[in-house]
């Protein structure tokens, strides 16, 4: 059995505690590794070592720091096949999707190569008599990231690339369900020239998360995961005086207007609803057709597309549309919610509950499910299912559809499919959601823009990646200097102004 420890000061070390967790192959249901869970003391020790390494790293000029990231990008390309297979084996997603997971992280690494420019401050010449004023961005010191299972490559990279290139040391606590890729990424960064101690990977559960939140040296925490944990981390981290940003759960709606290209809309829904078995925070989980006729046409087009989706283990090749869900627990939760939907009166048009994968009977597979006539009070609408289940909520008109999205507690992503520019523009302006697609079902912004939701989908200030990541992981210092010093104005007892 493979044992996964922690990555401390440039090498993998075994855990010192007796605590560990099982890492499954979701396709077979077999345990394939045992990951060590760190104690509070182990976390504190990793932070102390990071704290020793960080000042020297901050002194390295930004161009040289950026070159480490440049080399890292090259190594990611070199190891792409190996990393995506490793990722799929612990997560269950298809190989092309695993590659996408790595590439979306790598794109943020590429953006970070521009750090020398992004870290530049501002300068005002002669702001007063002999006075120049300038600002600089300085690293915070030791910072941390706590990441979810569903993007084990992309989200850790979104966190540590900007933090590290800005001169911080980083403590990464990846998901305990698929920790191997984050460990491999740390190894690649070392090979790329990152000094020891600048990226420490500490595996574990709530104990290590609490230790991160309570550690006085850690200045900032970036979290991605479910909403209840996000709220907990935000509250405890802020109470301990840290800068905290938490990106959380979602329920993403897609409006289908009567004038939409119905084939395009149905294809978009199938890809966005069932890709990665629905385990994406930007997955579309609610289809909102406007008008009865639109709903009838849409559901009629969706059914055969959904029934013909190919489900299987990642080893079955590139033709598979989606794989198993991550754990038995996730499988049971999703199936339980589908049962609840039926019990509460939604019509289950495609029933994937009895899906069995031949030869993989113990795998955590869930067949694709499609609900019609879902209402706001049903559990399948209220809860984030995080599985291959699409709910259709029929609406009478655009105003009712917009209101549905606006009154939902989540606000991560949303989309509208229409040929009408006025409606699209109105929707983009009025909807209270962080990321909006117009005829684009998964509007994940590219690396040089920023990513973040509204309402219960995000807590704290600033978004992830793009320029916001540099703002989050640095602090601004503004210097006012007077040269030459000979200018004599006498003592002044009032606040300096430019009058
Ligand atoms: P999760 O909340 O269970 O776990 C996220 C992290 O928190 C993990 O590292 C985990 O070890 C830790 N954790 C779990 N329980 C904890 C507890 N009680 N105390 C302290 N730490 C704890 O989330 P997940 O199941 O790994 O990921 C799926 C969730 O993440 C979904 O809700 C999804 O929408 C969300 N997500 C959001 C975004 C976004 O950007 N908004 C992106 C990806 C995933």
Would you write up a description of this structure?
The protein has helices at 40-59, 62-78, 80-91, 95-112, 115-118, 154-165, 180-191, 206-214, 227-239, 262-274, 292-307, 328-343, 379-382, 398-407, 421-430, 467-472, and strands spanning 2-4, 6-8, 11-13, 20-25, 30-36, 123-128, 131-139, 142-146, 169-173, 199-201, 218-224, 243-247, 252-256, 284-289, 347-350, 369-372, 389-392, 410-411, 413-417, 435-438, 454-455, 458-459, 474-482. By secondary structure, the protein is α/β, with parallel strands linked by helices. The longest helix is centred in the first third of the chain and has 20 residues, at 40-59. The strands form 6 sheets. Strands 15-16-17-14-13-19-20 form a 7-stranded mixed sheet, with helices on both faces. A 6-stranded mixed sheet has the order 10-9-8-11-12-22, sandwiched between helices. It has 16 helices and 23 strands. It has 2 domains: 2-248 and 457-479, Aldehyde Dehydrogenase, Chain A, domain 1 (3-Layer(aba) Sandwich), CATH 3.40.605; 252-438, Aldehyde Dehydrogenase, Chain A, domain 2 (3-Layer(aba) Sandwich), CATH 3.40.309. It is globular. Nicotinamide-adenine-dinucleotide is lined by residues 146-151, 173, 175-176, 205-206, 209, 224-226, 229, 247-250, 281, 384, 386, 412, 453, 457.
Summary?
With 499 residues, the chain is of the alpha/beta class. It is built from 16 helices and 23 strands. Strand 16 (369-372), helix 13 (379-382) and strand 17 form a beta-alpha-beta unit.
